[in-house]
Amino acid sequence: SPHELAEHSTLLVNTTRTPADMVKLLTVNLGDYCSIRVLNAYRIAKETTGTAFPNLPMLGALAHITGIINLSTLTAYIKETMTEKIGEQNIGHYLSALERGYNEISG
Fold it and tell me: Which contiguous run of DSSP H or E holds residue 10?
C-alpha cells in the first residue's frame, strides 16, 4: 500500500513535536517493525549557524540512524569540502550543527 512504510523503515522528521505526537498525526501505518525519529533541525541550525537551513543537522541525524558513515568521517568531509565556501571562521558552527543533529535525535 502507498500509505505503509517498508518493514524496518525509520521515518526522520524535522519537527518540534515528540515521536508519539507524530505517530498520532501521520497518515501512514508504521507497522510493527518501523520507527519514527524526530529532530528540531531548524532550531539547531538557527542556534549554531544563524541560518534557517536544517541540512546539516538532518544529515547528522541520518548518519546516526543509518550508520552508513561515522560522525568523524562525515565531519572531516564537511570540513574539507565546505571550509573554503563558508570560511574558516564559520566552519566550527556548521560542524556543531552536524554534531548536534547526530546527537539530539529522539525516538
Answer: strand 10-14
